[in-house]
Amino acid sequence: MRMYIHECKSLSIGYRPAQSSISHTMPRILAVQSHVIRGHVGNKSATWPLQLLGCDVDPLNTVQVSNHSGYPLIKGHRFNAQHFADLFDALKSNGHDADYDLILSGYMGLPEGVPTVAEGIRDILTRNAGKTLYLVDPVLGDNGKLYLPAEMIDMYKQHFLPMAFAMTPNQFEAELLSGVTIDSVESACEAADKLAQFNTQGKAPLVVITTLDTSDVASDSTLSLLVRAPAGQAYTVSYPRLHAHFTGTGDLFTALLAGTIAALGLHLAADGALVGKDEKVVDIVTAVARIVWAMQQVLACTDAYATSVIRPEDDRAAVLRKRELQLIHPTSREALIKMLTVVEDELESAKVVVKKVRS
Description:
The protein has helices spanning 2-7, 18-21, 43-52, 81-93, 114-127, 151-160, 171-178, 185-196, 249-264, 284-309, 316-322, 330-338, 344-349, and strands at 28-36, 56-65, 76-78, 102-105, 133-136, 141-142, 145-146, 166-167, 206-212, 222-228, 234-240, 267-268, 274-275, 353-358. It is of the alpha/beta class. The protein has one domain: UDP-N-acetylmuramoyl-L-alanine:D-glutamate ligase, CATH 3.40.1190.20. The strands form three sheets. A ten-stranded mixed sheet has the order 3-2-1-4-5-8-9-10-11-14, sandwiched between helices. The radius of gyration is 19 Å and the shape is globular.
């Protein structure tokens, strides 16, 4: 452990007690996604970071399993439609769902539960119109491989995308949902446009394609993502590529975006601009760049820890266990707390670069 702390240099930031940095009325978020006992994916990747950002989180777990599916053995339970119906009914009957600022959803588990979960979310959004926003991470797969049955693609199109204020697919998921092959920034913009068109609320959503590994913006040393603002402008955010495999990064990114939206009170103005609590336009692409900055700190710390403890004789389970996101380490914790206030010089120092690609 001493080696781990030595490898992960602490950030030089001033940490203030929670009572001086959290407002009296904290944003409340309903997080609908998976739960693992060991590791940091799904709600285990989301709850702690959201709490650090000053959000009160209500986790609604779609599955309860031992660990993520990359391990040699996974056991647990995927909840059915009746389970979700009971939970949403109790939330409604007790008035627990009247003060949500944001709902986020991720890994769904069984396809049979999707319509019930979607109806529960839709009911909350309808009763809290103008207050509660919905952010969907359409978890389907990655790197050309589906995690879930192919029928889930149409289920996301039918049930979740139409009511989303924001979407965070990775490149593979964006291709599956839009029908567009992404091989350039231009085609990524086309895919994002098609995803935005699924919204049936009369307002185009924020679309972030969280991985963009195309030859015009990525290389052996660089990765990118694409941000499509509700008004149609598009930006790339590029950052250093870490040559290592991590699990739960998409869940963490979505959680940090949810925390940013809730903390800033983001909503759409009549002209389609993203504005905050004070009705002033918010620089959403810089907000996303700050998320990337924070994630780079977490991943660098995770990689340093894994490098220091993985041994040649380790089996697959041991390696995966040592590569779990190190969210609780002081370096990661301080980076997450600082995220909303990172300045341009710090982004530049971390080689996080924003480029406008469409006006």
